[in-house]
């Protein structure tokens, strides 16, 4: 994979012609009045404000809540492209689940010398409390988000795995609802796969993972840290859309060997908890004793088979970027196949030779913390100042195992709407995957995140990025 190359424009070919995925959309767009499009752009922002689609930013002096920037030009993927992606995503998610089972049982991949033991021994995300325990249905990763980037017509790479508490699906759903409300005629002209049934599919998938103790229709609850969490909008949105209960730790208690929820009729058992609380805060009797966000004793009930926790505690180790660097070996070890979706080339700074290369090329690479997320704790060499590079050099030398590095990819671009017209911006894609004991269900499309600043490669909303509706065209 070349480290630097021309950006792949997903809408236009090199000769300026429109690529097949965008033919219908561009035909429609070319017929629209500019003033009409500007009004619609303003209407989209107004709609998001009225709906309350915001996220919280920690450590900022300005207002805690910010509007999620939305761009009304869709990102379009053909049916054939999506078929190839789904095969690779399904393979990877299957491998992740098998990997987690192995890590908490015989650790065959370590015994075979394919993964260093130190990646578990020195990793806070690997939980001793999960050793020897198999979750209901054998599912660890009930909801997975796989971050993909594109560099060419058929060149897709996995940038990150999100197997702990992947977020963003509510924005995927609201983006589609907004587009359908603003441009209903467009959807009559362009055949697009639906995404609105995701909450129903999520509810069914979670119910299918209910423990043996469940009687009748399983009761599902979404466990949130509360209104000050950055993703609270999503927690409440999904609970409402699924018809599930939205609860905080204080609403739950362990009673008669079950996790029970406070209701107007007294306490009633909960069968499946879609938790949006990190492992550390899940059970003060097992993890952080000062946590007020979790449920005392929930891990005992879980290990006794009295409740399903989605995603399973301990899945966060798959979000570790040092583990990510071994994913090609992990996929092959558990599936017997070469990865259909390759990783981005990655240098492990814990390795002496890799560290030397990274230090010698800091101005050309992207350096990330192995536990980092949200665009924080990273260095983008080509856009960094000399001082920023010097600071990161010291960090790498002080604690090299805390970092990995990757080449500065030429991410593909999709157009955004500006007052001057359409303008290309870099994008990534997070498809959402639901896993139950008998199937892997991939929602067609996912969340496209876009770097709204010209030339920026950082798509995270906390770093100034926005989102787009993602269209997967129906088979014709």
UniProtKB/TrEMBL annotation:
<dbReference type="InterPro" id="IPR051680">
    <property type="entry name" value="ATP-dep_Glu-Cys_Ligase-2"/>
</dbReference>
<dbReference type="Pfam" id="PF14403">
    <property type="entry name" value="CP_ATPgrasp_2"/>
</dbReference>
<dbReference type="InterPro" id="IPR025841">
    <property type="entry name" value="CP_ATPgrasp_2"/>
</dbReference>
<dbReference type="InterPro" id="IPR016450">
    <property type="entry name" value="UCP005522"/>
</dbReference>
<protein>
    <submittedName>
        <fullName>Circularly permuted type 2 ATP-grasp protein</fullName>
    </submittedName>
</protein>
<feature type="domain" description="Circularly permuted ATP-grasp type 2">
    <location>
        <begin position="74"/>
        <end position="451"/>
    </location>
</feature>
